[in-house]
Each structure stands twice: as structure tokens, then as C-alpha cells.
Amino acid sequence: VQLAESGGGLVQSGGSLRLSCAASGFTFSSCAMNWYRQAPGKEREWVADINRFGTVSNYADSVKGRFTISRDNAKNTVYLQMNNLKPEDTAMYYCNARGPDYWGQGTQVTVSS
Q1: Which of 49, 67, 72, 101 could form an SS bridge with 34, CB 3.0 to 4.6 Å?
Q2: What pLDDT was estimated at residue 107?
Q3: Mean local confidence (pLDDT), 89-106
Q4: Stretch 2-21: mean pLDDT, rounded?
Q5: Could you tell me which residues come within 8 angstroms of residue 2 by beta carbon, excluding any fewer than 6 positions away?
Q6: How far is C-alpha 42 from the geometric centre of its chain's CA atoms?
């Protein structure tokens, strides 16, 4: 089982990034997926989720209107499009397969002011 996040990096405030999470070793299309983040010294925070069909998504208030979660079951990949990034979005971002509770290793997002 593997969840491999990618797409993080350093971006200026107001910029955009697209995170990807490639899944393998389990039936991706059967799992709802989450994105979480954790900033240094803070607890892990849920960011967004999407159902297994890709038809229903939910967002934390802190990212609503700026982030979009999506998935491609043919590619076993879930995405997080992040627009209008703010310094407070700086964190390690993790994808999670709900149910089996699988986690990736994370990808770092740093937003400079």
C-alpha cells in the first residue's frame, strides 16, 4: 500500500499549487479520500474530503473558496488545487484514504508573504 504526495513547494502569497496523491496497493475507487495538513507546533488539521465517486466534496472553512479537491479513479490519484495561497497555509500536506486509514509521507507547502 502506498500513497505518494507530490506537488508541494515554495510559493508567494496569492500564488497557486496543485498537489497530487498517487495511490497503489488497494482499491482506490472504493475509498473516500481526505487531505490533511500540519503546521509546525500545531495539530493536524483536516482540509478537504471527496467521496469515492468524486461527486461530493467538503472543505474546512479556512480553505473554502480557495482550494478544490478532485480525483481521477482511472489514475488512482487525488488532487488538491490550491489558489490564492496565504502564509497561514504553510504546512506539510498529507493525503489519507478513509476507511483503511492509509497515509502518505506528506509534501511540504511553504507560502511566503
Answers
A1: 49
A2: 98
A3: 96
A4: 98
A5: 22, 23, 24, 25, 104
A6: 17
| Per-residue cell: 52 | 469515492
- Extract the C-alpha cell encoding 77: 490519484
Are the CB atoms for 13 and 85 separated by under 8 Å?
Answer: yes
Residue 39 in contact with residue 94, Cβ under 8 Å? Answer: no
Alpha-carbon distance of 102 to 113, in angstroms, equals: 33
Looking at residue 42, what is its pLDDT? 97
Report how far residue 96's alpha carbon sits from residue 71's, in angstroms, rounded to the nearest whole number.
13
The set of cell numbers assigned to 71 is: 480525483
Listed residue (69, 35, 33) closest to 51, CA to CA: 33
- Give me the pLDDT at residue 74, please: 98
Query: How, if at all, do strands 45-50 and 57-59 pair?
Result: antiparallel
C-alpha grid cell, residue 107: 509534501
Residue type, 14: G
